Amino acid sequence: SNPLHGQVHQDMQQPLCHYFIASSHNTYLSGDQLLSQSRAEMYARVLQAGCRCVEVDCWDGPDGEPVVHHGYTLTSKILFRDVAETINKYAFVKNEFPVILSIENHCSIQQQKKIAQYLKEIFGDKLDLSSVSTGDPRQLPSPQDLKGKILVKV
């Protein structure tokens, strides 16, 4: 493959909403969305392929541990903690631009608190905790400003 295709050839100083973002749907699935295996390694694969927005479907799991899987199907379940650790390991291997976790939240308050705890513990300083309070999208930070950051959208 052409190494030039991996380089950025545009202004990355514009507000985040000015860009198309390479996104993954049902990132955790290794196959079809009814019967396949959920695997944390799928996050490693898509992040290394240049994806910058990954989907994490969170559900209450046993022993107070939130799990990731495709709800109301026979897909297998993986621990949210394992998903977060995999994302942390691979988020910035290929490039430093921000990674967005698109969290689909089906958890009880108790397990939501566990998710928040894992996000803080695992991502540490990479987790962008600044809140954008303005309704004006021109005020959003740029990909350049957010290099090395993990953003959470719920």
UniProtKB/TrEMBL annotation:
PROSITE patterns xrefs: PIPLC_X_DOMAIN
Q: Which reaction does it catalyse?
A: a 1,2-diacyl-sn-glycero-3-phospho-(1D-myo-inositol-4,5-bisphosphate) + H2O = 1D-myo-inositol 1,4,5-trisphosphate + a 1,2-diacyl-sn-glycerol + H(+)
InterPro entries associated with the record:
PI-PLC_fam, PLC-like_Pdiesterase_TIM-brl, PLipase_C_PInositol-sp_X_dom
Query: Which terms are listed as keywords in the entry?
Result: Hydrolase, Lipid degradation, Lipid metabolism
- Domain Phosphatidylinositol-specific phospholipase C X, residue spans: 10-154
TM annotation in the entry: none
- Superkingdom, natural source: Eukaryota
- What processes in GO biological process is this protein linked to? lipid catabolic process; phosphatidylinositol metabolic process; phosphatidylinositol-mediated signaling; release of sequestered calcium ion into cytosol
Against SMART domains, the record matches this protein to: PLCXc (SM00148)
An annotated Gene Ontology molecular function: phosphatidylinositol-4,5-bisphosphate phospholipase C activity
Q: What class of enzyme is it?
A: hydrolase
Q: Which SUPFAM superfamilies match?
A: PLC-like phosphodiesterases
Which Pfam family, an example, fits this chain?
PI-PLC-X
Q: Does the keyword Hydrolase apply?
A: yes
Q: Report the GO terms under cellular component.
A: cytoplasm
Q: Which Gene3D superfamilies match?
A: Phosphatidylinositol (PI) phosphodiesterase
What is the official name of this protein in its record? Phosphoinositide phospholipase C
Q: Which gene encodes it?
A: Plch1_1
